[in-house]
Amino acid sequence: MAVPKKKTSKAKGRSRRASAWRVRSAGRSVCPRCGAVKRPHYACGQCGWYSNRQAIEVA
């Protein structure tokens, strides 16, 4: 069984754990029908289309 040769510092361990705390920006895609910016896998808020069909009625 592997055993560490040196003690890992607090900073090293904390920085490793902190890598999971990053805030990432939400993904963006373009609606193929109207060209508006929208979230992937969501119906377009401008035209209401999703997956080549009218998903929601937009006034």
Structure description:
With 59 residues, the protein is of the alpha+beta class. The chain has a domain at 26-50. It has 1 helix and 4 strands. It has one helix at residues 10-18, and strands at residues 29-30, 37-38, 49-50, 53-54. The strands form 2 sheets. It has a two-stranded antiparallel sheet with strand order 1-2. The longest helix is centred in the N-terminal third of the chain and has 9 residues, at 10-18. The chain is rod-shaped, with a radius of gyration of 23 Å. The chain starts with 9 loop residues before the first helix and ends in a 5-residue tail after the last strand. The mean pLDDT is 93.
Largest beta-sheet details: 2 strands, antiparallel
Q: Work out the strand percent.
A: 5-15%
How many DSSP E strands?
Answer: 4
Radius of gyration: 23 Å
Global mean pLDDT = 93
State the strand order across the main sheet.
1-2
Choose one word for the global shape: rod-shaped
Short description:
Strand 1 (29-30) and strand 2 form a beta hairpin. The mean pLDDT is 93. 15% of the residues lie in helices and 14% in strands.
What's the layout of helices and strands?
Elements: H1 10-18, E1 29-30, E2 37-38, E3 49-50, E4 53-54
Antiparallel strand pairs: 1-2, 3-4
Short descriptors:
single chain, 59 residues, alpha+beta, two-stranded antiparallel ribbon, 1 helix, 15% helix
